[in-house]
Specification:
Elements lengths: L2 H25 L9 H22 L4 H29 L4 H29 L1
Helix pairs in contact: 1-2, 1-4, 2-3, 2-4
């Protein structure tokens, strides 16, 4: 199994675990159900996969090139995430707290997974 396949399998596995834990917490009444639960999880999974595939396929020759590409993806992700948050706040202001909290937690989890993956991979090279 190549690096990209392992990353994507882990990413999908993590998304399923996040979904299961979230649904459990909703069921036991510990959290309020975010109205954009599925959309947020899908957006975070797809964006993380696309960023990984972009960084994996560019094959930078210098470490500085990788850092530039990574920073570019971080900036794009922040801008697009801000747009996504703005949209779901406008569509459902009543559930803003639940949606924003869920989004921030997922943003952290998916970004941490991506950074950890690249840190381990780059340290092994």
């Amino acid at each position: 199994m190549n690096s990209a396949t392992r990353f994507l399998v882990g990413l999908i596995g993590m998304a399923l675990v996040v979904m299961a834990v979230t649904l459990f917490l909703i069921k036991v009444g510990m959290i309020v159900s975010p109205s954009f639960l599925n959309a947020t999880l899908l957006v975070m999974t797809v964006s993380t996969a696309l960023i990984f595939l972009f960084l994996e396929r560019t094959h930078p020759r210098q470490p500085l090139d990788f850092v530039r590409n990574f920073i570019l993806t971080v900036v794009l992700k922040i801008i697009l995430s801000g747009f996504y948050v703005f949209v779901f706040l406008r569509l459902d202001p009543a559930a803003a707290n639940a949606n924003v909290s869920f989004f921030i937690i997922n943003y952290f989890l998916f970004t941490a997974y991506e950074v950890a993956w690249f840190a381990v991979k780059k340290n092994a090279e």
